[in-house]
Amino acid sequence: MRLTILGGGGFRVPLVYGALLGDRAEGRVSHVTLYDEDPGRLTTMARVLADQADGVADAPAVTATTDLGEAVRGADFVFSAIRVGGLEGRAADERIALAEGVLGQETVGAGGIAYGLRTVPVARAIARTVARVAPEAWVINFTNPAGLVTEAMAGELGDRVIGICDSPVGLGRRVSRLLGARPEEAWIDYVGLNHLGWLRGLRVGGRDQLPRLLADPVALESFEEGRLFGADWLRSLGAIPNEYLHYYYFNRDTVRAYQEVKQTRGAFLREQQRGFYAEAGRPGHPAGAALAAWDRTRAEREATYMAENREVAGVGAREESDLEPGGYEQVALALMRAIARDERATLILNVRNGPTLSVLDAEAVIEVPCLVDANGAHPVGVAPLPLHAVGLVTSVKAVEREVLAAAASGSRADAVKAFALHPLVDSVAVARRLLDAYAADHPGLAYLR
Q: What is the C-alpha to C-alpha distance for residues 43 and 23, in angstroms, rounded to an integer?
């Protein structure tokens, strides 16, 4: 099989390639094509992958290109992990939002909207290229905001684009282990949108084990989400929220914490990756040096993830178990296996709704458990959402639809509406100022008029 990675010079590419190295079954990926607009980043990433493949028999061959059509031609799977505007854009998204007293996180609130407005036109163009050049390929989208971008690409590719995220996987794994269950043997009742979902049950042998956890406040606060939200709030909800809901449930506290830090997350990653690419990209390095530099950088990146949120919650550093690999790259590999080999699997994915959630239309992309086979991903029926969740899900989906409309029409009015309707912005005046500031900062928003 042939896999193309869009954003092939991106920092997380070695996670995907490392997962492929461990796949020894027949019909595995034999060739990886890296596509990126930055040839320097491509060269650096190719060095890291060469270090990973050193000594591994039959490691997938790697080629790199800056030509999109060439990259996707002949691909069986296309993995999309692009970042329009780069980390410079992310840092600006955060800075501009915080100056208005609202959240600038890359997928949530004003920052997510700005990122989406930049990314959707590019994602749609990529989808059109794939549909024309490689119509039989399956697209696996990890480009953020993942649900929004998957829905944009689905307009061109239908059900042949599937979005993935590692957050529900990590949450399900942590809760399963806490309850003494093997994650692969547990059925996770999870429903929502990307970065806006709730784990509402965890069944082992047909019995829901979540009430046992909710009844134990000590156990509840012994894992990442329990420490973030607190036992009392989780017991009030009767569910375990995705970690990104911390931005909603503790919004004012989190905005204040972000305003007080010396450096936002985007600015930190920008400086960190500048250092990595400069070091790993230098010619004349001995074998293994590029991979060693990547490993060091990744460890620091993971350890500082959502640090401001943990500060708000009054908890310390991340647990070692939260730093282990096995996130989105394993979901991507399991998804490819299930489709290519018809090895049926159950995965939490971002797919078109169909009749699954009655509060949303059939075309809305949602994040739910899916049965996957050679014909793609099929969402499993879920119980209705409680009203508090319905409110958030429908509000954020309405915002996503305004982003899609603005990206299609170039309408400034649609873009302002997207900002103004978001529950974490909640002001038409702020929305207008945000769009003016983002448009002045990002050439990628010049299409809005």
A: 25
95: helix, strand or coil: helix
φ, ψ (nearest 5 deg) of residue 38:
-105, 105
Sign of the alpha-carbon torsion through 97, 101, 103, 105 = positive
Torsion region of 376: left, alpha or beta (phi above 0 gives left; psi -120 to 50 gives alpha): left
Residue ranges of E strands in 23-173: 31-35, 61-65, 77-80, 138-141, 161-163
Q: Catalogue the E-assigned strands of 210-275.
A: 240-241
Which residues are 208's β-sheet partners?
203
- Cα dihedral across residues 107, 370, 74, 28: positive or negative: positive
- Label residue 150 exposed, middle or buried (CB < 10 Å: 0-12, 13-18, 19+): buried
pLDDT exceeds 90 at position 348? yes
SS3 percent helix, strand, coil of the chain, rounded to 5, is 55, 15, 30
Q: Are strands 77-80 and 138-141 parallel, antiparallel or unpaired?
A: parallel
Q: How far apart are CA 234 and CA 211, in angstroms?
A: 11
**pTM of the complete model:** 0.94
Please identify which residue in the block is written with the tokens 């060439």.
70
Query: What CA–CA distance (Å, rounded) separates 312 from 108?
Result: 17
Band (59; pLDDT cuts 50, 70, 90): very high
Taking only the tens place, the pLDDT of each residue in 389-441 is: 999 999 999 999 999 999 999 999 999 999 999 999 989 999 999 999 999 99
pLDDT classification of 325: cutoffs 50, 70, 90 = very low
103, two tokens: 């959240």
pLDDT band at 363, cuts 50/70/90? Answer: very high
pLDDT at 204 over 80: yes
Contacts 24+ apart (CB under 8 A), 304-310: 304/265, 304/268, 306/228, 306/243, 306/246, 307/265, 308/254, 308/257, 308/258, 308/261, 308/265, 309/228, 309/243, 309/246, 309/247, 309/250, 309/254, 309/257, 310/227, 310/228
For residue 208, the surrounding DSSP H or E stretch is strand 207-208
* Structural contact between residues 103 and 110, judged by C-beta atoms closer than 8 angstroms: yes
